[in-house]
Design goal:
Blueprint: E1 3-4, E2 27-28, H1 49-61, E3 66-69, H2 72-83, E4 95-99, E5 103-113, H3 118-137, E6 140-152
Parallel strand pairs: 5-6
Antiparallel strand pairs: 1-2, 3-5, 4-5
């Protein structure tokens, strides 16, 4: 619905579609007042990038076969932060987004478990992220680019037997 202002408001320095301070009303194309419009259509909603990052990160982590997210450096920094008492895990680690008014594009860096079909995990992550962001944020997801940065091997978490650690 397009907005129109009273005649002569543009000449008075009031842009078309703005409220006329003299009459304190905004006329719409069909002659209705702004207050006659449904409440849900009055105003604009902006979604911060961090909101989409958290939605996408959480949706990606839900997929079986995703071990961790982020590049090597971000995972190292995240591991140190997670060990600090009171430190919180960053669900958005490894997620970058571009958010517009109606669309978003998302890049995700993953570490997958050894033995999973990498292409299947990437497809499942892409589908889950798109479904979650479009449902919760109402934005069209134009693309989800998935980069597999590493593979987590089963023995990566354990020290070899018989090897003494240098630190306790």
């Amino acid at each position: 619905m397009t907005t129109q202002t009273s005649p002569g408001t543009e000449a008075a320095g009031i842009p078309r579609g703005a409220r006329d301070p003299k009459t304190a009303t905004t006329s719409l194309a069909d002659g209705a007042k702004g207050s006659d419009e449904p409440a849900a259509t009055r105003g604009r909603t902006s979604i911060a990038d961090v909101v989409i990052v958290k939605m996408a990160g959480t949706a990606a982590r839900e997929i079986p076969g995703v071990y961790d997210m982020g590049s090597g450096l971000s995972r190292t920094i995240g591991a140190v932060r997670d060990r600090v008492p009171g430190g919180r895990s960053n669900v958005g680690r490894g997620v970058k987004v571009e958010v517009g008014q109606r669309q978003t594009a998302i890049d995700i860096d993953l570490v997958v478990e050894y033995g999973v079909a990498v292409m299947d995990v990437a497809r499942d992550v892409r589908e889950n992220v798109i479904a979650a962001v479009e449902r919760m944020a109402g934005l069209e997801v134009v693309e989800v680019n998935v980069t597999i940065n590493d593979v987590h091997l089963p023995d990566d978490d354990t020290e070899p037997e018989g090897v003494d650690s240098r630190v306790e």
